[in-house]
Amino acid sequence: MFAEKIIQGDIRATARLIRLIDDGDQQVFSELAKLYLRAGHAHVIGFTGSPGVGKSTVVNAIVTRFRRDGKTVGVLAIDPTSPFTGGAILGDRIRMQKHFLDEGVFIRSLATRGKFGGLTRSTADAVVVLDAMGKDVIIIETVGVGQDEVDIAQNAHTTVLITIPGMGDDIQAIKAGLMEIGDLLVVNKADREGTGKTIREMRFMLQMSSERYSVLGWTPPVIETVALQETGIDELYRAILDHRRYLLEHGQDNLKRVEKIRVRNQLLDLLKEGLLDAALARLGGIRGLDELVEQIAIRQTDPYKVSSDLTEKLLGGAP
Ligand SMILES: Nc1nc2c(ncn2[C@@H]2O[C@H](COP(=O)(O)OP(=O)(O)O)[C@@H](O)[C@H]2O)c(=O)[nH]1
Ligand SMILES: [Mg+2]
Asked: Which of 32, 80, 86, 215 has the fewest CB atoms lying closer than 10 Å?
């Protein structure tokens, strides 16, 4: 029912389906299956980095830039906190206000009130919807820098990692690990002191991994921005297009490689969820699970036996 309308670009149908995805509603699967075959054209870009570094401000500016070239844009703001407090999203709404009036931009937040760690999966599903709807570019803005963000980054073709100048040494160490997920590295708030030093450090870290990057054929550029003043946004825009071109043109067909990683993750997530659902149903839902937990906690039985028995029952189809 939704799919046809969404493919025609119907905004209300799109909003409703994304809402159902966010709620973890199972009825979305048949619609997604139809949409999936029509999707696969959009450039998916993830923006990640610690809270407050200016992700929403950068996204706002880059959306304006894409619009100037006539590209349509979907924005998914990921916010796993309660939808009722909604502070971050309210702020994002204010920052992206002017785009809410633009037909060529579709902005939604995902809180995923659904189930177990469904955030990565519901993000992937929402991307399928916006892609099938015909958006040229889909932007995913994550909240922070945890494992979720790394997983979500795997949903993107291009990942933009945003930092700010002058964070402490310990944060630098984390950054070193995190830098690996960034195809583009942005130092935002470059109006602040310490920008030069931060950029030098990042370039140094890149140099230490230069072998890896030369194998890949892509070295992440380090880009300075003052998103509030839209400074550096053109450069970021060009770098995003460069990365897209790299994915499309490189001899080893990088787009296919990145696409396969995305599809693989999505399929594994779906399988995990499906199998977990089946297992829980077999146990009699959360209640049954809790009863087993009780027995395991008092050492009446053990988690190894319980899970292998259950797996065997599920796969063997035995009663
Ligand atoms: N000084 C300065 N402040 C900025 C810049 N970009 C964003 N901010 C401010 O940083 C704060 C957090 O920005 P926001 O985009 O919400 O960050 P997010 O949490 O990463 O999405 C806001 O008050 C912005 O106005 C910048 O380039 N320079
Ligand atoms: Mg934000």
From this structure: 215
Domain ranges of the chain: 2-250, 270-316
All residues at 6 or more sequence positions from 167 whose CB lies less than 8 Å from its CB, including other chains: 175, 198
Q: Which CATH fold topology does 2-250 show?
A: Rossmann fold (3.40.50)
Mutate to test the pocket of ligand 1, among 164, 228, 233 (most ligand atoms within 8 A of CB): 228
- Is the pLDDT at 214 greater than 50? The verdict is yes
Sign of the four-CA dihedral 265, 268, 274, 277: negative
For residue 163, which ligand has an atom nearest its CA? 1
Q: How far is the CA of 232 from the centre of ligand 2 (A)?
A: 19
Taking the model in full, what pTM does it have? 0.84
Q: How many residues does the structure list for the chain?
A: 319
Cβ neighbours of residue 84 closer than 8 Å, sequence gap 6 or more? none
Q: How far is the CA of 186 from the centre of ligand 2 (A)?
A: 15
Residue 84: per-residue pLDDT: 42
Identify the CA nearest to 178 among candidates 220, 216, 215: 220
Beta strands across the sheet bearing 137-141: 105-110, 73-78, 137-141, 43-48, 158-163, 184-187, 222-224
Give the residue-averaged pLDDT of 86-109: 70
Residue with CA closest to ligand 1 atom 12: 52
**Rounded to the nearest 5°, which phi and psi values hold at 106?**
-120, 120
Residue range 39-52, pLDDT digits in tens: 989 999 999 888 88
Q: How far is the CA of 239 from the centre of ligand 2 (A)?
A: 21
Identify whether the C-beta of residue 31 lies closer than 8 Å to the C-beta of residue 19. no
Residue nearest to atom 8 of ligand 1 (CA): 54
Nearest CA to ligand 1 atom 17: 54
Protein residues whose CB sits closer than 6 Å to any atom of ligand 1: 51-57, 91, 95, 188-189, 191, 226-228
